[in-house]
What does this fold into?
Amino acid sequence: MEIPKQIEEVLEKLENAGFEAYIVGGCVRDGIMGKTAHDYDITTSADPRETERVFSDCRVVETGIKHGTVTVLFKGMSVEITTFRIDGDYPDGRHPENVSFSRNLNDDLARRDFTMNAIAYSPRRGIIDIFGGEADIKSRVIRCVGEPEKRFSEDALRVMRALRFSAVLGFDIEENTKSALLQKKETLVKVSKERIFSELKQLLCGENVKGVLLEYREVFAEIIPEIREMFDYDQHSKYHNSTLFEHTARAVEAAPTRAEMRLAMFFHDIGKPACRSTDENGEGHYYGHAAKSAELADKILRELKCDNALRMRVCEIIKYHDIPVELNHRAIKRRLSKLGGELFCDVMEAHIADDSAKQEFTKARTETAREAIRIAEEIAEEKPCLDLKALAVNGGDLREIMEPSPRMGEILGELLNEVVDGTLENDKAALLERAREFLRSKG
It folds into this structure.
């Protein structure tokens, strides 16, 4: 298994000082899967004070000394080193009440969540795998270490971690682990909203997200009760061939693997049940559902402690996800002026994901959205004036011809519209003359 030179040297320093030392957890799992790990956790028989002495020539930070963790800044790399430990009881369903240090690696591996994360490796001793994690990785199975109910009772976040791993890695959850996970889903109330959202965000970006959303929908309803109404909701629409929640899961999977896009598609139709009307033929219509969905998404994302920038972007995509698409430069320039280039392209991606998850005949419309993106990129290369910052006049210039007033902003907006439409040149003299015309026409 290839590991960075600095990590090898850290292991070697601990070994040369008379201690056992291994990389452990996700980095070993990734190595077995042939992936490049981004973080390396080291576990050792040395207690924290012994570790500090081994690395007395380095800067050492006591990041989690109570739980046996110190961070060593070694040759430009920040390395977390944790002592073998045994966890005490978990009275709050999240954190051990106490930990005791051990000299036995098996004790440390036995406290971990899933077999695929309970594998250790060192260049000297090779792979240490007492729970069959390597076989589970090769079989693409997520299995709890030891008793599943106990594992989920100890730390409720493991419920979301199991689903995240399933979505991201494409692994199935072993039957006993699945049964315990579903039994313990209500314990998610013990987990902070920030931690739940972190797992949800990563999960939604997984390649196997559709399967996980559909199979474990009741778990997601524990953290977002508003989605339960979507589960078996028949949209009675000629455009749809599935329930509202299945359409949502398919749209999420069809979206680009960026958090803002996956979250937007997860919430894009959540407002539909509140907006339904039915015509004389029994066809369902959902006028205003985009705005309602954006409103609900904003509320839910605030509750989940989503950061403001991401929340606002997600809600903007939802708000405009069903705007009409016109394939002409003038119409697209107007959209670009209103939304900006990045948001416009995200909205078109939402169109594509949405139509990809409907009846077969709607998939032809995805080409229209793709062409709109192409035209938008073509327009962007021309660097046209699409916002007030690029307009050749500003409020200061208008003071030459009028007294300061709210009307200034209105005139600047009208000038911009004409420039965007191509009926007025973005030239200061031409713009000021047109502004005078506006003033004369208004008396």
In short: DSSP finds 22 helices and 13 strands in the chain.
